[in-house]
Amino acid sequence: MYDNLDTLGDVTLRNLCIPGTHDSGTSVCQDGTFFSPSSDIQTQTLPISAQLELGIRYFDIRPCLTNGKFYTGHYRNIPVLGWQGANGESIDSIIEALNSYTKKNAELVIVGFSYAYNTQNFTVLNQREWGLLFEKLQTVQSAFCIKDASPSADFSTDLTSLTLRKFIGGKKSAVLFIVNDNVDLTKYWGRGMYSSQNFNIFNKYSNINDPETMSGDQLTKMRENSKNSYFLLSWTLTQSYFDAVLSAIFPCARSSRSILGLANMANKTLDKKLLPACTSEIRPNIVLVDNVTESLDIVSLIMKINNLK
Question: What is the Cα–Cα distance from 309 to 306, expressed in whole angstroms?
């Protein structure tokens, strides 16, 4: 972003395209349940620190509180088996990665929080538990603070209407935390923490394991919604229960039916299918992928989209 500030600086976030990762923190698996092999949990192979270096600017973070400590997590409630999944990177390691990167790079980074659970009983985080997380996040040195962060401030401020230059420039970097769950942000609003009211993202994944069906669905959603909303294109495949069992039992199936295997299938089609479908008016604001790697070169695709006239 900083290298292209001359051309992108006066572009609003609503008209800017950035790369993002899905379930960004699960490049590792720890504290997993019995029926949760890594093939059914791991969505990324690179930690947040390496994803930042590759140019990822939106992170889908799913915080979990486990034995008094915060981690990222990937869990789902499976019929008969109940809650299954595992924790990924710790929130502490993500904070360290954000501070280390933004200290040297004047970039805008957006972190979206959702699917937040206490793994002791798999209840959603309550207000007190969210407060513990928010206090921890106060150590993020580049958290974006608006001028009026008082309790009487206008909580409806639309951050997507601001230009990139409002967030970064010179040596100034910025980290935005968007809390998508229903939680009171009064005490923390404007101190890096914002609600979906301030950053309302259209985000509807396809929930399918077939790349052709997924791409058709997402491109249709883009055509129908990107003009009137901040649009997230979810270029991800969802592992079915059959996929999960197959990849867990048979290692030979993991190259295609594990989450990473499905991600590789989807990523192969990204450049060929997405760019021709984009115009100066119809384009995604976030392109979300699993298993981002250097070979995917998603930043080049994003810049081609941003340069469309």
Answer: 8
DSSP-H helix ranges across 9-90: 48-54
d(CA 17, CA 303): 8
How far does CA 261 lie from the centroid of its chain? 19
Q: Do residues 40 and 244 lie in contact, with contact meaning Cβ atoms separated by under 8 Å?
A: yes
Report whether 137 contacts 191 (CB < 8 A).
Answer: no
Write out pLDDT tens, residues 221-243. 999 999 999 999 999 999 988 88
Domain range for 65 is: 2-306
Inter-axis angle of helices 127-137 and 91-104, nearest 10: 30
What are 130-174's pLDDT values in tens digits? 999 999 999 999 999 876 555 555 677 899 999 999 999 988 999
Q: How many domains does the chain have?
A: 1
**Cβ(76)–Cβ(83) under 8 Å?**
yes
Cβ neighbors of 79 (< 8 A, separation 6 or more) are: none
